[in-house]
Amino acid sequence: MTLGQRIQEHRLRLELSQEALGEKLGVSRQAVSKWEADAAVPDTDKLIALSKLFGLTLNELLQVEGPEAGQEAENAEETPRSELREEEKPGKKKMHAASWLLPGLAVLALVLGLTAMVVSFGRTMGQLSDRIARLELRVSQLEATQSAADLENLVADCKLEVGSAVYSSQMDSARLYRDVTVTVSLSRTDLVEEQTVFFQVYGAGAEARQVDGQAVPGTRGVYSAQVPVVPGLGETIAVVIQIGGTEYLQPLARISSMSDNAIFYDPLLEQK
After folding, report:
1. Contact, 170 vs 209, CB < 8 A?
2. Which of 10, 43, 223, 246 has its CA 20 to 30 A from that of 129?
3. Hey, where are the domains in the chain?
């Protein structure tokens, strides 16, 4: 309440008109009207006179609220709200929610992206592993084919010499066996350390025999062995060469007949 409003309130309480109040204070009605409208303020003497007339102390009369008193009260009521912690304000709550929601969505998108990349990478690696396995199989097949082709041309030459007639306790004692010295020369000497050589004799009338070949001293790639042959059965002498896991059998000769000093055979090895 303003000073003018208070003057008006107490004037009406005393049932005085503006003109009557003016007469008691020695001022015009217009002056009282300006006071009550807060267009002017009474001087000190008139304030003292008003307080005495209204039965108030000067302090009680002057305990007025300025034009902004109501606003100050509202501000005072809202002060606790303005002093709320930042996190307690409604707007701040929304801002805080957004502040963690957006980074959370970004992290989720990153995780999903990385997961997709890992799945794609795993699928690609699986396909690559399959291709590598197929390539390794193909290389193995090509190597085996190449090895077989190399072995086909491995035997360069062979020579047969008749030996003495013998009876062997390890064989059929009812048959006469004649030792035949067989010597072969291999076309590749770079595989000597890797290869194993042995000779076989087989035919329709007797059990097959096998004899290990021995490297001829002072030579490289030349192997020899004495193999027992049954005269008159037309047996075949062959050399078997093993290199790694590959085995190659090369027929050398088919025996047609033998004497004490000579051997007759049909060569089966094409001379290179």
Report:
1. no
2. 246
3. 3-71, 84-152, 155-267
Longest alpha-carbon distance in the chain: 181
CATH 2.60.40 describes domain 155-267: yes
Helices 29-36 and 3-13 pack at an angle, to 10 degrees, of: 120
Span 119-160, pLDDT tens digits: 877 777 777 777 777 766 765 655 555 555 555 567 777 787
Fold observed for domain 3-71: 434 Repressor (Amino-terminal Domain) (1.10.260)
Closest CA to 228 of 169, 188, 187, 142: 169
Residue 88 clears pLDDT 60, i.e. is over it? no
